[in-house]
């Protein structure tokens, strides 16, 4: 849907202002949009959108007198590089220098689409951002033409300036006031054809790279909001546990402690520093009641999931079966920056600073939690230190607001790493039953039924309050195999669920991260059953030309089939989603099967136009590490209603020694509009790692992570 | 409260703090030097990695009392004014960062490694324990190799 929208002619218009300010409605994928009503329902014509448009729903571009181009982005930067991609789109059409383009993150709005997720940011911005900048450029050129009494068509733009044929030039900043008064530009305001792109498609370093390497990049915890004191929360040992009683006398008597307040999720301590806050938290004497899952451990969850998988039905008569059951453990999002929120809640207004993929929903929830009208709640969106879906939920922001209200002072709430790992959120555990039926050398039916844990309403406290309504864990969605990636005859499948009071969340690539990974393992096993090579089998059974092309690319670039020493093997997998496709080839050394090392990763992706190939390569690299981690070693155990792990010491996300020594990403040239890319690589990478492990060890990988 | 004096990024500082207060919170909450990040508080994720007398430390597990009279360098003090350290330059060249949160620690770990081992092998680089949840490890490896040629 995103691609259909971006092919439309956007209606772009100018706002009355003393500097050149233009706005375009921001298209969105209605099914993914945040809030009750999508900003641009698919049925609405652009002209109607114009009629009802307000600044709030728009992507707004301003050229300042200081020659800066400013676009407040209604998306969040969490490392995926969206601010860089947006700046490139603007710089391209405006002929501005990239350093002159500034992309601050917009505060939470009242209307429109401010949702970051579903790998849709680039595709949703691609049309509006270019239309916007192209109109601004046309007006700036027209303003210069009138100043110099020259025909507008003779002027050129470059480096945030307009140039006359005689060599005179004027900065955009010097023209912005007169450009603001121009109603109809004298030159066309259409975006450039792809053949003239010089910025789009050029590998570009992040616009915030220098801030990052000098320590200047600012995250929520780095803010110095007046009076906002460090705050931590004592949380129950079990998931959803409750405070029975608390003796806070010792904690309150400690130096540097400002307040101790009970909240739904535990007991909060506000103190002079995080050191004081942690010390006082440890001095609290709390009696806890166990949470609703206190009798439940992994084994029981696994058997309940197995029992919840719907039956596959009968295979076609006369067919042979290749089948498998697959189990995936819970996985923490574990972004490097723990959840952090600064909140200043007063009697008549509230102001919150945090990193959010869903700031509009967050604003509504915060307002309702603290009992203020939405209009009195200001939410500032900050860059996030990673997310992987974690910041779709706004647990910490609601909690910070409630603590600020109760303590009657601004607070800077930080979840500890232990809080983050022990109290979620997590990718739901799941169980998969897959059966490929083959006859006369080909697959005639493919069935995949699955069950995953879903979050029950029993969950209370901050976790429940911070649940993003429309974008929580999706469990009953159609299976990815419904899309028919392979020519596998009759494709069927349904999903079931086990409801538990656990804090869950969408984890990068959501259901595909487990479902498609398991399917790619079965594809290898079918190939083997049919006596075919995994790449050759895929090449003859994949439906799409683009996905066959990326497979061929990794097979050639990765020297598929080269001789490997005993205990080492290659593995391959593909995936198609978000209007894009990807293939991954890995080499894995399992000489010690308990300590396997992926030594090399080769990926190829076709995402349509790659706005920033360098950023896309980074996203693919990240998904490769996600695949390595989740397949080989990173997962969460549940022991008697509690999470066993508590930090990166036992949640074994990959380190440098687990990362491939060589990584290559090949991007297929394309003039198509951009598809999604941020989550795309996960299933292909995970599938390739599992398949390489299977081939290296002669085993059938079934339960993930393998070393757990 | 006792007071402690040390040199921070080339400048003498004195802070009043409890002796067991970890350097990380002294830096972040008392001195407002926020480059070193909290990621675990137990010396595991190493997002806070900085230098003490030129050696790598994790300030989240180093009490401020241990820093008396010594030189603390954080990411903010690695560059020579506007001239970036070769490791920072290599990080820009390779466009290493994604979310950026672990990168001050990664850069400080790499700079400490290169001080001791001018031509690190893959095995040397594998011993860096800093977590990068975005998975930038391959670019980190390339950047360290590149920086090693420019030091």
- Largest beta-sheet details of chain B: 5 strands, mixed
User: What is the CATH fold-level name of the largest domain in chain B?
Assistant: Ubiquitin-like (UB roll)
Name given to the CATH homologous superfamily of the largest domain in chain B = Beta-grasp domain
CATH class of the largest domain in chain A: Alpha Beta
**Radius of gyration of chain A over alpha carbons?**
27 Å
Q: How does the overall form of chain B come out from the CA principal axes?
A: globular
CATH superfamily annotation of the largest domain in chain A: Aldehyde oxidase/xanthine dehydrogenase, molybdopterin binding domain
Distance between the termini of chain A: 40 Å
Poorly predicted runs of chain B are none
Write down how many β-strands of chain A occur, each being a DSSP E stretch of 2 or more residues.
31
Looking at how many chains there are and whether they match, the oligomeric state comes to heterodimer
Please identify the structural class of chain A as seen in this structure.
alpha+beta
CATH architecture of the largest domain in chain B: Roll
Q: What is the CA-CA span between the terminal residues of chain B?
A: 43 Å
Please indicate the percent range of residues of chain A in DSSP E strands (runs of 2 or more): 15-25%
Overall shape of chain A: flat
| Number of spatially distinct domains of chain B | 2
Return the CATH class of the largest domain in chain B. Answer: Alpha Beta
Query: What is the averaged pLDDT score of chain A?
Result: 91
**Which H/E pattern describes the elements of chain B?**
EEHEEEHHHH
Topology, element by element:
The complex is a heterodimer of chains A (708) and B (151).
Chain A: H1 2-7, E1 13-14, E2 21-25, H2 46-52, E3 58-63, E4 69-71, H3 82-94, E5 101-102, H4 121-148, E6 156-158, E7 161-163, E8 169-171, H5 172-180, H6 209-213, E9 229-234, E10 242-247, H7 249-253, E11 257-263, E12 266-271, H8 274-283, E13 285-289, H9 298-308, E14 320-328, E15 331-332, E16 340-345, E17 350-354, H10 359-370, E18 377-381, H11 395-407, E19 411-414, H12 417-422, E20 426-427, E21 430-439, E22 442-455, H13 462-465, E23 490-492, E24 495-500, H14 512-529, H15 534-541, H16 545-557, E25 568-577, E26 580-589, E27 597-606, H17 613-632, E28 638-639, E29 642-643, E30 662-667, H18 681-697, E31 703-704
Parallel strand pairs in A: 4-5, 9-19, 14-31, 17-18, 22-23, 22-24, 27-30
Antiparallel strand pairs in A: 1-2, 2-3, 3-4, 6-7, 7-8, 9-12, 10-13, 11-12, 14-21, 15-20, 16-17, 16-19, 21-22, 25-26, 26-27, 28-29
Helix pairs in contact in A: 3-4, 4-5, 10-11, 14-18, 17-18
Chain B: E1 3-8, E2 11-16, H1 23-30, E3 50-52, E4 55-57, E5 71-73, H2 86-93, H3 103-116, H4 122-126, H5 137-150
Parallel strand pairs in B: 1-5
Antiparallel strand pairs in B: 1-2, 3-4, 3-5
Helix pairs in contact in B: 2-5, 3-5
């Amino acid at each position: 849907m995103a691609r259909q929208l971006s092919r439309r002619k956007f209606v772009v218009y100018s706002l009355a202002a003393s500097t050149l300010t233009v706005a375009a409605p921001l298209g969105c994928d209605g099914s993914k949009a945040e809030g009750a009503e999508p900003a641009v329902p698919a049925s609405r014509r652009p002209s109607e959108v114009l009629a009802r448009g307000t600044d709030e729903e728009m992507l707004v571009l301003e050229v300042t007198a200081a020659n800066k181009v400013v676009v407040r982005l209604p998306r969040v930067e969490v490392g995926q590089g969206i601010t860089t991609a947006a700046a490139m789109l603007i710089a391209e059409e405006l002929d501005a220098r990239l350093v002159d383009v500034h992309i601050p993150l917009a505060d939470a709005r009242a209307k429109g689409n401010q949702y970051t997720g579903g790998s849709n940011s680039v595709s949703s911005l691609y049309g509006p951002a270019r239309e916007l900048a192209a109109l601004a450029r046309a007006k700036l050129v027209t303003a210069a033409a009138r100043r110099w009494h020259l025909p507008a068509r003779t002027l050129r733009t470059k480096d945030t300036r307009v140039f006359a044929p005689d060599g005179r030039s004027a900065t955009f900043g010097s023209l912005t006031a007169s450009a603001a008064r121009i109603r109809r530009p004298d030159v066309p305001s259409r975006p450039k054809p792809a053949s003239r792109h010089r910025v789009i498609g050029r590998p570009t370093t992040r616009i915030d790279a220098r801030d990052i390497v000098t320590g200047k990049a600012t995250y929520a915890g780095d803010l110095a909001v007046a009076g906002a004191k460090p705050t931590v929360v004592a949380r129950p040992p079990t998931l959803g546990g409750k405070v029975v009683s608390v003796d806070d006398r010792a904690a309150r008597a400690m130096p540097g402690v400002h307040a101790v307040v009970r909240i739904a999720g535990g007991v909060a301590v506000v103190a002079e520093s995080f050191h004081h806050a942690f010390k006082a938290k440890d001095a609290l004497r709390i009696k806890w009641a166990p949470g609703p899952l206190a009798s439940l451990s992994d084994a029981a969850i696994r058997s309940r999931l197995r029992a919840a998988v719907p039956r596959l039905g009968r295979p076609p008569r006369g067919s042979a079966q290749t089948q498998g059951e697959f189990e995936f453990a819970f996985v923490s999002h574990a972004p490097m920056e723990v959840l952090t929120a600064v909140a200043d809640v007063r009697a008549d207004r509230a102001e919150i600073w945090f990193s959010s993929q869903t700031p509009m929903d967050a604003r509504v929830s915060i307002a309702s939690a603290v009992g203020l009208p939405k209009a009195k709640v200001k939410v500032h969106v900050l860059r996030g230190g990673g997310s992987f879906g974690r910041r779709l939920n706004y647990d910490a922001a609601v909690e910070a607001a409630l603590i600020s209200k109760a303590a009657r002072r601004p607070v800077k709430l930080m979840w500890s790493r232990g809080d983050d790992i022990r109290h979620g959120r997590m990718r739901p555990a799941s169980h998969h039953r897959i059966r490929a039926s083959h006859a006369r050398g080909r697959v005639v039916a493919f069935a995949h039924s699955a069950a995953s844990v879903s979050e029950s309403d029993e969950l209370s406290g901050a976790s429940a309050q911070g649940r993003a309504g429309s974008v929580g864990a999706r469990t009953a969605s159609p299976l990815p195999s419904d899309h028919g990636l392979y020519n596998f005859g009759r494709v069927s499948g349904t999903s079931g669920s086990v409801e538990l009071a656990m804090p869950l969340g969408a984890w990068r690539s959501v259901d595909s991260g487990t479902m498609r990974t398991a399917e790619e393992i079965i594809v290898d096993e079918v190939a083997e059953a049919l006596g075919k090579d995994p790449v050759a089998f895929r090449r003859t059974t994949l439906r799409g030309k683009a996905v066959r092309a990326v497979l061929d690319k990794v097979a050639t670039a990765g020297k598929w089939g080269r001789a490997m020493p005993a205990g080492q093997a290659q593995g391959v997998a593909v995936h198609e989603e978000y209007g894009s496709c990807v293939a991954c080839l890995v080499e894995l050394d399992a000489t010690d099967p308990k300590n396997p090392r992926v030594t090399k990763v080769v990926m190829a992706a076709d995402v349509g136009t790659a706005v920033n190939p360098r950023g896309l390569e980074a996203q693919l690299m990240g998904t490769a590490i996600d695949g390595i981690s989740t397949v080989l070693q990173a997962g969460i155990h549940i022991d008697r209603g509690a999470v066993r792990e508590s930090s990166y010491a036992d949640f074994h996300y990959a380190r440098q020694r687990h990362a491939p020594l060589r990584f290559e990403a090949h991007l297929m040239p394309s003039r198509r509009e951009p598809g999604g890319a941020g989550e795309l690589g996960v299933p292909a990478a995970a599938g390739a790692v599992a398949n390489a492990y299977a081939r290296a060890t002669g085993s059938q990988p079934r339960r993930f992570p393998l070393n757990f | 409260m006792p007071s402690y004096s040390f040199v921070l990024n080339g400048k003498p500082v004195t802070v009043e703090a409890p002796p067991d207060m970890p350097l990380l919170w002294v830096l972040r909450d008392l001195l407002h030097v926020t480059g070193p990040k909290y990621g675990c508080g137990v010396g595991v994720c190493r997002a806070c990695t900085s230098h003490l007398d030129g050696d790598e430390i994790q300030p989240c597990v180093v009490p401020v009392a241990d820093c008396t009279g010594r030189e603390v360098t954080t990411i903010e003090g690695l560059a020579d004014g506007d001239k970036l350290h070769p490791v920072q330059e290599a990080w820009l060249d390779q466009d290493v960062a994604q979310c950026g949160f672990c990168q001050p620690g990664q850069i400080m770990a790499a700079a400490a490694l290169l001080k001791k081992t001018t031509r690190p092998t893959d095995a040397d680089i594998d011993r860096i324990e800093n977590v990068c949840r975005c998975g930038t490890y391959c670019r980190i490896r390339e950047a360290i190799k590149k920086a090693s040629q420019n030091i």
